[in-house]
C-alpha cells in the first residue's frame, strides 16, 4: 500500500526538482526526505529516483507515480472539502495576492477574522506568474491575480473580481499627447504588462526604454517625473494624484483581477468564505477600480 504522506513528498519533489528544495518547502531535513522517498520506492517496488553524487531526478516510473500522486492528492482534498460542506469556515488558509490588489482586497479579508474566529488567514504577496505553480504545489489556497489575456488553467477555477482599466500615465504638467521622445518605463520582457505596453505603443518612438520590476515602482517613477508608462489604474492608487496625468486608451483596454483556486478545494467552507468576501468587496466597489 502506498503511503499518502510519501506520495505528497514525491509530488513536491516533482514540482521542485531537488531533495533540498523539497525539504525546505515542507520543513523537513534533506536526509528525512531522502529516507521517505527510499521507503516509497520499496512500497512501489520500482526505482522512482535516479541518484548521483550531486543530484537526484525522477525515473520514468517516478514521473508516472508523481502524476498519479497529484490525482490522489486532489481527490483527497475534494473529499475533505465535500465532507466539510455546511460547516463553519475554520483552519489555516493562505491567500496569495498581487501587490496592486493588496490595498483593495486585504481590508475585506480582514473582516473574515471577525466573522469566523476559527479561521487562520495568512495573506502573502505573490506575482501572477508564480501564483499558478504555487496553487498546484499547495503553497497557497487562493490566488488573487491579474489576467492580461485569456488563458486556460487546467485543474483550477476562477472568479472574476474586477476590471482594471489601462491608462497612459504621464508626469503632472505633461501635455499627455505623445510618447515619442520620452523615456518609456516598462516591465521586463517576460512580464504580461510589458506585452500590453509593446502592443499599445508599438508604433511609438520613445527616447529610451527603462525596465523596472513592479507596477508600483513604475507608477512612483512616473509621479517623480522620470518617464511615461502604460499602467492599470490600480497601480496609481497610492501615488499623489496631483503628480500624475492619466490618459485612457480608445478603444478602452483593461486587465482583469481574478481569484483562482484549485477545483478540488472549491467546496471547502474556508475557501468559499474568502471568495464570497472578495466578490462582496467587488460589488461594493463597482466594476472598476
TrEMBL record:
Signal peptide: none annotated. SUPFAM superfamilies: Periplasmic binding protein-like II (SSF53850), Winged helix' DNA-binding domain (SSF46785). It comes from the Bacteria. Keywords: DNA-binding, Transcription, Transcription regulation. CDD domains: PBP2_LTTR_substrate. GO terms for cellular component: protein-DNA complex. The keyword Transmembrane does not apply. It holds the Pfam family LysR_substrate. The keyword Nucleotide-binding does not apply. InterPro entries: LysR_HTH_N (IPR000847), LysR_subst-bd (IPR005119), WH-like_DNA-bd_sf (IPR036388), WH_DNA-bd_sf (IPR036390). Residues 2-59 form the HTH lysR-type domain. Belongs to the LysR transcriptional regulatory family. PANTHER family: LYSR SUBSTRATE-BINDING, TRANSCRIPTIONAL DUAL REGULATOR HCAR-RELATED. This is LysR family transcriptional regulator. It comes from Amycolatopsis alkalitolerans.
